[in-house]
Every structure is written in structure tokens, then in C-alpha cells.
């Protein structure tokens, strides 16, 4: 990001997105979202995105062009306009400030995504955002949408060199935006894109060990501690759930502990984030059908990617909060001595589970991690997992399913954080009645509860391994998309990173 002087030369630029009234510039480098530089020079060629309540021609556009824009925007139903004038791409969005703030921010993110597509189609390298409203934060939302939409995962596709996006920089014109907010935005976007990269990697590149090592690398870069337990250590701890799921695999499991504890942390006891790290899920002996089931199961570690990359963002931004993240990781395959329906598994806490479906494996590895979390006497534990098809069936890709024993104040913060970043939570009931569906004749509980309320019974299974305030988030719907949805690109979405950062920023 760069801070520049004035917009007197903007009329000479090629690409423009406008908000308005302020005269300084901040630059976001979309190639390296974590690096921010100051630059007082304004290039004379750029695209522009204008955010405004009523169009005001501050760009010395020719009278005919100005008249066309004004006339086009006189239509009360017309909220956006894109215009290509001699190579100058101008996108104007009329904002209705009577809208609720979270909705308005999301509108700007989504519009920013369309602008990113247009700039890349024009082979543009930069975009200026100019804000004619008195709400400078709208510039940040637009920039966020552009940056997230500019993501590509083409590292394994040499033939796609010509398809590489050309957009490199997002430049925000606004005197009232604190540079710390620009820095924070860069960090969060960068962390989200890191999570997308992890989710998009196939298992022959990213097995459990590689996933753990990726977190170790992030820890060194951002400044948080990372400890990785190997199979021998996992055996010593008697983490029976992880070992059972791993029994059919040739690759060893890992258990990664990440901790960020700054001086002056606002919390006495840590917040613990737990992420499901099934790097590939065949369903085990309860083999998944195909296509469109096993085919996409490299994404079954999206919860792990979310908590690990959230830790990266939290530490990089130096938030004053003590956070621990736990990631149990393995793949789930039907080979070797794979656990079989009917097996009884002894978990780390000493309780037993009758395993009736090896495709309900995520809860088995999360259970050991949730028991392990007790040692921290945590303020709150939140797990995130692509856990059940039932959650996706219930609410689609539009949000995540949530439930738990967190207190009212904690739940309010959790739900509001989701709304703030548009990673919304549909809260499901968590009545004790659902625990009855998990009763087993031969063990303490079963790992499935039957055809009804599948996402809730999975949460009730996990609750058995907690003795602290707890909240469960199922991201099976939005974690991986089969088609682009505005700034959420096809494939891994990085869902959960922005949510966790927002929550930890405001605890």
C-alpha cells in the first residue's frame, strides 16, 4: 500500500473505481498481501472504481461522457454503471447508506469482485478506489472484495500462464483511513489466500506431515510457536480416535499445537481453536460413492487451514489475545488395518466409541483434540470442520452451521463476528435430547446418530469430550465451491479465517 499526494492526475488514468472526497492514496499489493510500501507517485494510467451516493464528476471527464453517466444514473433502480472511455474503465456504484452496515460492506465486496474480473479482462495492472461518501470504511470493503476475487490457483498448470491475472495493485484514495487498517486488511487477505492454497492442494502434495510443516513455516514468519507431535507421541498420549482413522493409511498422522501469547494479552485463559485436518477422505471402509463426493475430498482439511491461517493473521497483526490452535491430521483410507464398522475405539479420555461408519471420521480425530484442550483451562473452545453433509444440505453454501455450550455473551460475539465478515452462522438447537441418538449398546456412545439431525448429533458427540465453554462450527457447505461466487473463487474459499480474526480482534 502506498500513501500518495492528490488525485489531480486521475483524469488521465485508465482504470477507476470511485468512492470520493478524500485526496490521499494507500496501495494494496495483491501479489504480496503482507508487504506494504509507501509511494507518493500516482501513475497516470489506471482503472477507477467510484463509490458514491450521487455521482460528482471530479475527474475532468468530457461533457458528453459526464452527461451520459449522469443520465444513466438518474434511473432510481440503477445502482451500478461500468463505462469504458478510450481505454479508461470506470465502474460506479451508488450506495444506499440507509442499509445495515454489514449488508453495505458485503455489497461493496461483491461489486469489487466484478471490478476485479473486468480489470483482468482489460489486462489492467492497478485499480484506484475513489470514495465520494463520508464512509471511508466502504473503500476497505471494496478493496477486500477485489483482492479476494483476484486469487488463482494455477501453480500445477504450466499451460495456464496466459490465464494469469494481471491485476497487481489496489490503490485506495482516502485521508481518513488509518494505515493500520490497511495493514490489517493486507494481513487478513493474505491469510485467507494461504488457506485457499492449502485447501486446493491435492493429497499427493499435502499429506498430514506437509500440512503440519506448513503451519510451522507460518509460525516462523508470523511469530507464533508451533509444536508437531508425530505418530509415536500420539500413541504415547493414547489418542485413539486419531490412530483409528489413520490405521488404513500409509502416511503417519500428526497433531499440531500452535500458540500465540503476546505480552499484555487481554485474556487470562487462552481461546482455543480446533480444526479438522483430514487431508483426504475416501470414507474408509464405508467408502464414499463417486463422482462429486470422494473427488473433492482434498478439501476435508479446510477447518485445519482456517485455524492455522487465522493464527498466522492474529500473530502477524500482533493482536493482544492469547490463542492456541490444535490440528489433528491424517487421511482416511480403506487399506491396511483400517477401522471397520462395529469396532470399539478407546479415545484419549478413556471413553469408548462404537464406530458404525468410518466416513464419520472427522469427529473421531476432533474428539481427541477437544479432550487435549482441557489442559489449557480455556476461556472458550471453537472447533471448525467440514463435518457433515447434513449441514450443507440444511443451509447450502451460504453460511456455516453453529451450536454449542458457550454462554450468551460469547455466542453473541461469535454470531456478530460472522455477520461482520459475511461468514454467517445458522445456529442450530443443541438440546440434550439429541444425545440419546448417540447411545450405544456396547460402548459409551456411537459415532453416528442415524438419519435425522446429522449435523447436531455430530456436535453432541463432540460435546462429550469437553468440560469448558464450547462452540462447534460446521463449514461443509461454504469451504469448497464447485463454481465461483463473487469474491469466493472456485475451489477452496479460505472460509473461517476472516471470521476467526474478526472474533479474536473483538473479544
Explain what the structure shows.
- This protein has 507 residues and is an alpha/beta fold.
- The chain folds into two domains: 10-177, Leucine Aminopeptidase, subunit E, domain 1 (3-Layer(aba) Sandwich); 205-487, Aminopeptidase (3-Layer(aba) Sandwich), CATH 3.40.630.
- 32% of the residues lie in helices and 21% in strands.
- It is built from 13 helices and 21 strands.
- It has helices at 63-73, 101-121, 137-149, 179-200, 208-222, 231-236, 240-246, 302-316, 362-372, 389-395, 408-420, 454-463, 497-505, and strands at 15-18, 25-29, 47-52, 80-85, 88-94, 126-131, 169-173, 225-229, 254-260, 271-275, 277-281, 323-332, 343-346, 352-355, 380-385, 400-404, 425-427, 445-446, 470-474, 480-481, 491-492.
- Strands 8, 9, 10, 11, 12, 15, 16, 17 and 19 form a nine-stranded mixed β-sheet that branches.
- Helix 2 (101-121) packs across helix 3, helix 4 (179-200) runs antiparallel to helix 8 and helix 7 (240-246) packs antiparallel against helix 9 (362-372).
- The longest helix is centred in the middle third of the chain and has 22 residues, at 179-200.
- Residues 1-12 and 18-42 have low confidence and may be disordered.
Amino acid at each position: 500500500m502506498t500513501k500518495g499526494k492528490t488525485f489531480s492526475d486521475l483524469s488521465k488514468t485508465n482504470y477507476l473505481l470511485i468512492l470520493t472526497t478524500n485526496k490521499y492514496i494507500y496501495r494494496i499489493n495483491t501479489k504480496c498481501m503482507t508487504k506494504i510500501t509507501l509511494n507518493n507517485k500516482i501513475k497516470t494510467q489506471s482503472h477507477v472504481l467510484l463509490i458514491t451516493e450521487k455521482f460528482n464528476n471530479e475527474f475532468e471527464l468530457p461533457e458528453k461522457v459526464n452527461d451520459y453517466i449522469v443520465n444513466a444514473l438518474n434511473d432510481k433502480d440503477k445502482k451500478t454503471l461500468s463505462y469504458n472511455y478510450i481505454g479508461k474503465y470506470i465502474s460506479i456504484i451508488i450506495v444506499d447508506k440507509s442499509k445495515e452496515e454489514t449488508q453495505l460492506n458485503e455489497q461493496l465486496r461483491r461489486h469489487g469482485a466484478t471490478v476485479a474480473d473486468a480489470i483482468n479482462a482489460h489486462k489492467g495492472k492497478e485499480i484506484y478506489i475513489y470514495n465520494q461518501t463520508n464512509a471511508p470504511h466502504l473503500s476497505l470493503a471494496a478493496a477486500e472484495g477485489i483482492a479476494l476475487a483476484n486469487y488463482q490457483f494455477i501453480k500445477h498448470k504450466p499451460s495456464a500462464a496466459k490465464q494469469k491475472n494481471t491485476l497487481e495493485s489496489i490503490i485506495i484514495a482516502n485521508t481518513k483511513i488509518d494505515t493500520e487498517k490497511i495493514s490489517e486488511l493486507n494481513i487478513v487477505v493474505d491469510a485467507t489466500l494461504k488457506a485457499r492454497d492449502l485447501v486446493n492442494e491435492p493429497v499427493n502434495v499435502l499429506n498430514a506431515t506437509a500440512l503440519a510443516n506448513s503451519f510451522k513455516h507460518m509460525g516462523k514468519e508470523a511469530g507464533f510457536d508451533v509444536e508437531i507431535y508425530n505418530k509415536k507421541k500420539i500413541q504415547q498420549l493414547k489418542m485413539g480416535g486419531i490412530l483409528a482413522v489413520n490405521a488404513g493409511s500409509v502416511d503417519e498422522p500428526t497433531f499440531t499445537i500452535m500458540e500465540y501469547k503476546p505480552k499484555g494479552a487481554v485474556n487470562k485463559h487462552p481461546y482455543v481453536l480446533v480444526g479438522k485436518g483430514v487431508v483426504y477422505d475416501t470414507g474408509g471402509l464405508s467408502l464414499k460413492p463417486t463422482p462429486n463426493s470422494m473427488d473433492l475430498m482434498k478439501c476435508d482439511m479446510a477447518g485445519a487451514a482456517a485455524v492455522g491461517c487465522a493464527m498466522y493473521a492474529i500473530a502477524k497483526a500482533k493482536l493482544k489475545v492469547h490463542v492456541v490452535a490444535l490440528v489433528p491430521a491424517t487421511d482416511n483410507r480403506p487399506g491396511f488395518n483400517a477401522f471397520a464398522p462395529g469396532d470399539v475405539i478407546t479415545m484419549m479420555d478413556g471413553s469408548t466409541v462404537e464406530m458404525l461408519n468410518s466416513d464419520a471420521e472427522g469427529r473421531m480425530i476432533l474428539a481427541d483434540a477437544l479432550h487435549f484442550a482441557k489442559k489449557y483451562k480455556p476461556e472458550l473452545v471453537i472447533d471448525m470442520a467440514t463435518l457433515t453433509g447434513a449441514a450443507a444440505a440444511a443451509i447450502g453454501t451460504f453460511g456455516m452451521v453453529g451450536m454449542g455450550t458457550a454462554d450468551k455473551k460469547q455466542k453473541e460475539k461469535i454470531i456478530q463476528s460472522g455477520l461482520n465478515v459475511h461468514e454467517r452462522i445458522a445456529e442450530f438447537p443443541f438440546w440434550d435430547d439429541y444425545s440419546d441418538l448417540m447411545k450405544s449398546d456396547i460402548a459409551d456412545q456411537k459415532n453416528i446418530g442415524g438419519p435425522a439431525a446429522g449435523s447436531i448429533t455430530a456436535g453432541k458427540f463432540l460435546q462429550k469430550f469437553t468440560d469448558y465453554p464450547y462452540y462447534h462450527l460446521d463449514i461443509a457447505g461454504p469451504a469448497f465451491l464447485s463454481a465461483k461466487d463473487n469474491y469466493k473463487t472456485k475451489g477452496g474459499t479460505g472460509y473461517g479465517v476472516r471470521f476467526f480474526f474478526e472474533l479474536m480482534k473483538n473479544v
